[in-house]
DNA sequence: TTGTAAGCGTTATCAC
DNA sequence: GTGATAACGCTTACAA
């Protein structure tokens, strides 16, 4: 393993180490002759500057951090996160940044990971996802003045840089669609309580029902997590009700898939006896049977804006607008 | 944003900065009294050491690198990579390492990214995936003595630390299964030529056919990429043949899904008129219609061994065995 | 046992 | 224009 430093290049080029640095940084003051001499040696030896030293000196690592709160197993099967990670890598890379991804399983390790990444200066800034209504990270990060951006929502809305789907509107959109199809008893299978995305979609769902003059019977709302298993269990419970729903809004496509499985198992025909709508328009939606209608969220744009907001902060080009909304749209397939 | 250094802690504790460092590193020589004094100040101010400075000093960043060769769009939809990334994050995290993920779209940027990550010392080591039969990275990395581990295969096999499925065996397994089901005209829809994983599965496919006394008509093998679209086109081409296959081995589940779509569109019944087997046992296999039979590869174990092999190299605990094989197994569902 | 000081490989500010 | 030189924050001989 070679150990090449500016110092060595300097000696080989018979210039000072400072000059090597200048050449590398494109300082216009070095004469063409020296520049060529240095560049030749650099080229010949394949010298590349040490990012660690640059980081220490410049106080910047060129790395963005992303922390997701899913168990490794859930993360492995969740198309939302793979799409998100892929898109962030892409946009960060185009802006010259790398991405460091960590997963925090347990709630108690969450805080630790933020400490680990930000306070240690391992990353220049953080992209946070899945904010909770009572999120202990936010006040902390805000108080310390750490650069971060939120994919999601936090209150007060303008306190943080954030980009989000209009989840209230999305919940409404799915519900109104089912109402238009003539459904009256519509269930909502949610993820965890206290997560903005779930609460917001729930709110949209309620709004749509109320405006249509329907009531929202509490037994038609089931809280859980983002797994297929939860969708399956929740659907089974709902179908076991004395008066089961004729339609269901699932907070996530995986959850919707679980609901489809429960319906299939019980011989409930979809969409004839039960209409199902999911969220995210995951790639598999078109392959399942029946193809799953879903509210598409624009993950790439979410990632793009998040990355841009963060990098602008880091580079002192503070964005004019703190809060950004990316529209959703419904993709109609055969499940509803 | 606070700017706390060991120096400040030292002053506040009325000790030398070296002592602060010793306390943090758990040096047994510091007296209990001083240790307590320093720890109190550290605690009170929430000091955390700067990873950049530590990296420079220790010559280690505590970051592993993973570079995948997929376009962002492909990466976003490929369950193999999300599972792989999730598992690596998990195992690396448990060993105290972070993971930096990059994507190299174009072939010409591949080399650049390795340079960028390794030569700049941004990461301590690299996990490589999808080795090519003529892989320009390998000789380069070997020559420079960079720490890396390969998920896949390279020749000579013992030249590099690597972990792999037995892909030749897996290709055989899928083909023999179809032969046992009575199929004689079996096609192979592959990914790119020159990728070990595709070539190896192809070899297994050929071996199985030959041993069964069948010939391998070249028109039944279609090379392409890892997309659903490729599977769709290839299947259409195969079904348009004067003598179409009655079964197909697809190099990847996504490709298999594309094949299913083509069959469905043409009114070819699966599995009655066409049997389909994929690879990876992706989560969606059980949800598609008909549920897709697939050769399951153990992604978590792949990730675990790869991470372990790499970290052992980094920490000087060189593993006894360079080459590791993880077995596959066939998951029978209804598509074949 | 504790402090002083020399780096780690850069960048940037000085003089010359 | 170029070369010393002082940081950046940390670890670790070496001194005391």
Describe this structure in words.
2 copies of one chain form a homodimer. Chain A has 336 residues and is an alpha/beta fold. The first copy, chain A, has 3 domains: 6-57, 434 Repressor (Amino-terminal Domain), CATH 1.10.260; 61-164 and 299-326, Rossmann fold; 167-297, Response regulator (Rossmann fold, 3-Layer(aba) Sandwich). Chain A contains 13 helices and 12 strands. In chain A, strands 2-1-3-4-5-11 form a 6-stranded parallel β-sheet, sandwiched between helices. A 6-stranded mixed β-sheet of chain A has the order 7-6-8-9-10-12, with helices on both faces. Chains A and B meet through helix 4, helix 5, helix 6, strand 2 and helix 7 of A and helix 4, helix 5, helix 6, strand 2 and helix 7 of B. The structure holds a DNA duplex (16 and 16 nucleotides).
Strand arrangement within the widest β-sheet of chain A reads: 2-1-3-4-5-11
End-to-end CA span of chain A: 60 Å
CATH topology descriptor of the largest domain in chain A? Rossmann fold
Share in β-strands of chain A: 15-25%
Q: CATH superfamily assignment of the largest domain in chain A?
A: Response regulator
Are there runs of chain A of 5+ residues with pLDDT below 50, and where?
Answer: none
Could you tell me the radius of gyration of chain A in angstroms? 25 Å
Q: What structural category do the secondary elements of chain A indicate?
A: alpha/beta
Largest interface: A-B, 57 and 57 residues
Shape of chain A: elongated
The main β sheet of chain A shows up as: 6 strands, parallel
